[in-house]
Write a structure and sequence with these properties.
- It comes from Halorubrum salinarum.
- The chain is of the alpha/beta class.
- The chain has two domains: 4-191 and 369-386, Glycogen Phosphorylase B (Rossmann fold); 195-367, Glycogen Phosphorylase B (Rossmann fold), CATH 3.40.50.
- It contains 15 helices and 14 strands.
- It has helices at residues 18-32, 73-87, 89-98, 138-141, 144-153, 170-179, 195-198, 223-236, 251-260, 275-284, 299-306, 317-320, 336-352, 359-365, 370-386; strands at residues 4-9, 36-42, 51-54, 57-62, 103-108, 126-130, 164-167, 185-187, 211-214, 242-245, 267-271, 287-290, 311-314, 329-331.
- The strands form two sheets. Strands 3-4-2-1-5-6-7-8 form an eight-stranded mixed sheet, with helices on both faces. It has a six-stranded parallel sheet with strand order 11-10-9-12-13-14, with helices on both faces.
- The radius of gyration is 21 Å and the shape is globular.
- The chain starts with a strand and ends with a helix.
Length: 388
Amino acid sequence: MSQTLLYVNNTDPEDGGGGDRRLFEEAATLHEKGADVQVVASRTDPELPQRRVSNGVRIRTVKCVPDFLQRAPTLHFYLARSLFPLVSLPILLATLFRDNIDVIVDNHTPHPSLVAFLGPLFTVPVVALVHEYHDRSAIEKYPLPVGVIQLLVQNFLRIRLYAAVIVPREQTKEALREYGTSIPVHVVPNGLDVDTYLEPPTTVSAESFDFVVVSRLVHRKGIDQLLEAMALVTAADPSVQLGIAGSGAERDRLERQAAELGISEHVTFLGFVSEERKRALLHESSVFVLPSRQEGFGIAVLEAMATGTPVVANDLDIIRRLVPEEPNRLADASDPEVFATAMMDVVNEQRDGERVLAHENQGEAERYSLDRVGEQATSVYDQVRVHT
């Protein structure tokens, strides 16, 4: 049975982090399987077209703040996301009037829109796509206003506002059950087009780094912690190089931090990179590092694993359940000495073995193919339609 799906996201899905990419990849996969898919999102990147079709998915972005605020990227980014729930209401109403939508998917990255209040007016079920359960530590991991908002709006999951909830892991489902979520909660892991990562792309080339990280440059991703560890690594081995791929509100501050630590010559800020260049970077670099203070799933780790690249990551429970013990290392990223030691251990092993592929990593990544994930998501949306 074909489906007509509306995804709602407070960040442009081609300009966000792992949760935003998860939405877009799922949408594109379901389009390939015959679904009619569209996305309404905040216009967080004014340089991207406001209306476009990407991989068969129709994307409409909503301008929430003036473009001139782009001069203050942190303010522009957070205002665009925060105002989206209100500013998007007329667009969402018009979409629901115009189109015969079967299921709405409200992506919590990190907070929801207000579409769950509109769905019942049109007898359209709304599914919450939730990437993590938030406890009081959210106030430390995110900017204070964002952390507080997340804790408040998480209550939406306890008042039967949604027809169902999708989470990426069984542990998140258990946490929401304990929290008091009584609506159906389904586990659908994040997916990856594994085949595209197995071999390096032939159309682009990339620099080779000892360490590489692909991440949005925001506080919870812990790049500041990585730079502290990198200062110790370069003191032990002045030849090492770190590549940081990704854009974000904290780039200027992180570049200043690198300069203050005296490691600017060892750190290259690459900015936004295309999907192909990202895959090339992962293949060419010796070790992938993930210093995040928090992760809902860890799709960036899965991407690195699919290329056979060893991983050094912050010792988070969610990552511990994803990454094989060897040849990877999990270490406390808040302790620069501990994390630096793990980084050096793995890069030295790679040098000794002349860049041996981590086949255990590739085997684990293959469990999360997009085809498999798409089938699971389709099944959930079919169930929701039947019971509405």
